[in-house]
Write a structure and sequence with these properties.
- By secondary structure, this protein is mostly helical.
- About 90% of the residues lie in helices and about 0% in strands.
- It has 6 helices and no strands.
- Mean pLDDT is about 75; it is low at about 1-10 and about 365-380.
Length: about 375
């Protein structure tokens, strides 16, 4: 991956297009995930279907992260991007672990939906930033914020550990209190032994009283038997009334059971209708996704064709530049040769003039007359 010289976080146009295509695919999958995941009113319903769907979606997310790492792994200078990928991977693993431990908890589904919406919003913002500015600073800022949240959670865990230490200290205090109570219990046991001795003495005194009380109890027993017989007859009548009421309750229960069964059949029909609708919507979204993938492939082919044309045009331009440079050098060489020839001709002409060579040679007759004329003038003087 190539980075521009303006900023270490700005990408070249080709890499930006590649990353934008991957992020668009990610946004589409997250949107499909958002349409599929629903928070049921009864978490115990559709157990197997919910587990299979969540497992498939999480596997798709893992595959998408692998493709993202494969595209981004060529950048040797992007240490922050590699750190970001590790955070995304660890977060996804934590979600998978939580969902696998308790996949039917409504709170987990709500948390998963919130994380999906946040991730979709973050990827959309990163896609827009890469498309417009060619950088991913917003993604890095979001990572820093998540790291701060994680640090706050770690502080909470540390506070919880301190609370556990306090609980252990209180447990030790409780053990000390227990030991003191055991000592007190021992003293109380000694008191109980003393009271038992007094009890034996008291039993001897109460033996005679007991015999009197036994006789009195026999009389009371007879009276109680009579009362029980009367009460039994009353309870028998009450039992008959309860049996009549039980029969009525069974009748009402059967009618209620029939109504519930009928209502269950209606709900089953509604469930089948919604399942059919879900399958149709999934097929429709899958078809839209395949169409988007096809359009992406066509765009990539056009990009390759334009790249080849650009290379051809660049070769033609380089050849034209080479020819122009060659012609320029030839013109400069010819001009230099003309200047040198001109200088040589001027020099030679000067030599011929100074030495009287060629057409510039002096004639002999003219030379003698000239000398005589000079001598005559000298004689006159």
């Amino acid at each position: 991956m190539l980075l521009t010289s303006d900023s270490p976080l700005e990408l070249c146009a080709l890499d930006a297009e590649h990353i934008a295509a991957v992020l668009e695919d990610c946004v589409d999958q997250l949107a499909v995930l958002g349409n599929i995941i629903t928070i049921p009113d009864n978490p115990a319903a559709n157990t197997d279907n919910s587990m299979d769907e969540i497992a498939k979606l999480l596997n798709g997310q893992k595959h998408l992260e692998g493709r993202y790492e494969e595209l981004m792994g060529n950048d040797k200078n992007s240490s922050e991007m590699s750190h970001l990928k590790q955070n995304m991977k660890s977060s996804a693993q934590a979600i998978m672990k939580n969902v696998k431990l308790n996949p039917l908890a409504a709170e987990n589904l709500i948390k998963l939906q919130q994380d999906r919406e946040y991730l979709q919003l973050l990827v959309c913002e990163c896609l827009e930033e890469i498309s417009q500015e060619g950088s991913f600073e917003g993604l890095i800022r979001a990572t820093v914020e998540e790291r701060e949240k994680k640090n706050k959670l770690q502080e909470t865990i540390l506070r919880e550990e301190d609370a556990r230490k306090n609980v252990r200290a209180l447990q030790r205090q409780l053990l000390d209190l227990k030991k003191s109570k055991e000592v007190e219990m021992q003293s109380r046991n000694e008191m109980i032994a003393h009271l038992k001795d007094q009890l034996q003495e008291t039993r001897a005194k109460t033996t005679m009283e007991r015999k009197y009380i036994e006789k009195e109890c026999q009389v009371q027993k007879v009276m109680k038997n009579k009362q029980c017989n009367m009460t039994e007859s009353e309870l028998q009548v009450e039992l008959e009334n309860l049996q009549i009421q039980l029969e009525e309750e069974n009748k009402v229960n059967k009618e209620t059971e029939m109504w519930v069964k009928k209502h269950h059949d209606q709900l089953q029909e509604k469930v089948e209708y919604w399942m059919d609708k879900y399958e149709r919507e999934v097929d429709q979204k899958s078809e839209e996704l395949s169409n988007l993938k096809g359009s992406k492939a066509n765009i990539l082919l056009k990009l390759q064709e334009l790249t080849l044309k650009y290379q051809e045009y660049e070769e033609v331009v380089m050849e034209d530049r080479a020819q122009k440079e060659k012609a320029k050098k030839a013109a400069e060489k010819a001009e230099l040769e003309i200047k040198c020839a001109t200088k040589i001709q001027a020099w030679w002409k000067g030599v011929m003039v100074r030495r009287g060579l060629g057409p510039y040679a002096k004639k002999k007759g003219k030379g003698k007359k000239g000398k005589k004329g000079k001598k005559g003038k000298k004689g006159k003087k």
